[in-house]
Amino acid sequence: MRIAEFDREKVLRSAMTSFMDKGYGKTSMQDLKRATGLHPGSIYCAFENKRGLLLAALGQYREDRNTEFTGIFSGQRPVLVELKAYLDNIVLECQSCDVSRSCLLTKALNEVAEQDEEVRGIITLYLANWQQAITQVLQNAIDQKEITSDRNADVRAHYLMMGIYGLRTFAHTHPEGNTIKQLAEQLYEDVCR
Amino acid sequence: MRIAEFDREKVLRSAMTSFMDKGYGKTSMQDLKRATGLHPGSIYCAFENKRGLLLAALGQYREDRNTEFTGIFSGQRPVLVELKAYLDNIVLECQSCDVSRSCLLTKALNEVAEQDEEVRGIITLYLANWQQAITQVLQNAIDQKEITSDRNADVRAHYLMMGIYGLRTFAHTHPEGNTIKQLAEQLYEDVCR
DNA sequence: TGCTTATTTGAATGATCATTCAAGAACTAT
DNA sequence: ATAGTTCTTGAATGATCATTCAAATAAGCA
Question: Which of A174, A86, A102 is nearest to A138 (CA)?
Fold first, then answer.
C-alpha cells in the first residue's frame, strides 16, 4: 500500500478555479498540472479523466457552497436578516476582481452540459438541491411570519434564483460602482414583498 | 475580379447557431465547414480567422436582435404593451426546445471574453447598446406617464436586464411548465411598479 | 476572346491536446 | 529487512485542430 501524497481538497479547489478562469475546454492538462501540482499520470490515477476531475471538482464546489450556506442560515438570527447577509455575500463576490469566477455550476452548465448528458444531470441535481434549500429558508420566513404567505415559498425561491443568476451575469459587464448592490436590494424587496 | 458566391448573412447565421450550440471553443473548422458549406480556405479568405468569423457572427447577431427589437418597439402601441410583448417573446425563446441557443453575446462573454480583451470589449459594447435601448423604452414609458418616475429609467433598465439574464439561465434547468412565464410576469410587475 | 484578379478547393502542415505506459519511488505489512 | 502494492514521474502516442498553400475555377474588363 501507499497513501496518496496530495491533499484532495486542495487539488480539487485548484482545478475548480482553473475551470472557472479558463473554462473546462480551454483548461489543458498542462494547466491542470501547473495548478494542482499533480503530474498527468497522477490525475488519471486519481480521477480517471479530465472529465472525472471536473466531476470531482463539481462535487467539491457543491460541498463548499453547502457549508457556506448552512453557515449563513444557521437559524440564530431572523430569517430575513440571514437572507440579507446571504445576498450581501453574493454582491461582494460579484464585485470582487475575479468576476469570472462566478459559479462553477452555471459556467459548466453553459459550456459542457449540452454535450454531456451525465454532467448536465449532475449539475441540474446540484442546482435543484440549492433551490430546495432556498425554498426551505423562505418557508421558514413564512412560518415565522416574517413575510406573508400571499406567494408561496416555491415561487419566491424561483424568483430569487433567477435574480442571483442575473446578478452574476450582469456583474460581468458592470463590475464597477454599486449598481450590483442596488440591484440586490431591490431583488431582496421584491422577493420578500 | 470575382464575386463571392456565398450568402454572407446565411453563412453568419449558420456560424452563430454553431457557436451557440457547441460553444466557440468546441466548434471545429470541420463543424463550421459543414454548417456554412464553406471550405476552410474560403472562410479564411472571407473572415481571416475562426476568431474573425466569431466577430462577424457577433455583429450579425447584434443586427438581427436590433431589427427584432425595433420591430417590437415600433411605438404604435402603448410602451407597456410593447414591453409585455417583448417579454413574451423572450419567454417563448426560453421555452423552445433549443434552450442552449439563448444569447450569443452572454454565451461568448462567459466563454472567451476573459481571455480576449478585444472580444470582451465588443460584447460589452453591444450589451451596453442594448441597455441603452431598453433605458430609452422605459424613459418613454415614464414620459407617457405609463409608469411613475419614482425610480428612473436607468435603474429600471438595469433590473430588467438582470431579470432577462436570469430568466435565460433559469430556463436551462427548468425548460418545462410555465415557471418561466410566471417569473417573467413578476419581473414585468417589479420593473414597472 | 484573352487577361487579370479574386474566390474556391481540399490536401498538407505543424502545433496542441488528452491519454497511456513503463520505469522508478515510497509506504505497509510480514 | 524484504516483498508487495500503490502512487508518481514524464516522455511517448495518436488524435484533433486551426491554419496554410498551390492549383483550379470563375467573374469582370478590355
Answer: A86
The CATH number of B73-192 is: 1.10.357.10
| Structure-block grid coordinates of residue A180 | 450590483
Give the per-residue pLDDT at B5. 72
Q: What percent of chain A has pLDDT over 70?
A: 99
CATH for A1-66 is 1.10.10.60
DSSP annotation of A98 reads: -
What's the pLDDT band for B101 if we cut at 50, 70, 90? confident
CATH number of A73-193: 1.10.357.10
A21-37 mean pLDDT: 95
Tens of pLDDT, residue by residue over A56-113, are 999 999 999 999 999 999 999 999 999 999 999 999 999 987 777 889 999 999 998 7
- A77: its cell numbers: 438570527
Q: Is B23–A25 a contact, with Cβ atoms under 8 angstroms apart? A: yes
Residue ranges covered by each domain of chain B: 1-59, 73-192
Task: In whole angstroms, give the CA distance from residue A7 to residue A25.
Answer: 24
| Overall CATH class of domain B1-59 | mainly alpha
**B145 phi/psi in degrees, rounded to 5:** 60, 25
Residues 123-152, chain B, CB closer than 7 Å to nucleic strand D = none
C1’ D24 / CA B32, Å: 23
The rounded distance, in Å, linking the Cα atoms of B51 and B63 is: 19
Cα B96 to Cα A144, B163, B171: the distances in Å are 39, 18, 10
Cell representation of residue A118? 451525465
Instruction: Please check the confidence at residue A120 and state whether its pLDDT lies above 80.
Output: yes
Nucleotides of C under 7 A from a protein CB: 4-12, 16-22, 25-29
* A62 CB-to-strand C distance under 7 Å: no
A186 to B182: CB separation less than 8 angstroms, yes or no? no
The answer to whether B173 and A128 are in contact (CB under 8 A) is: yes
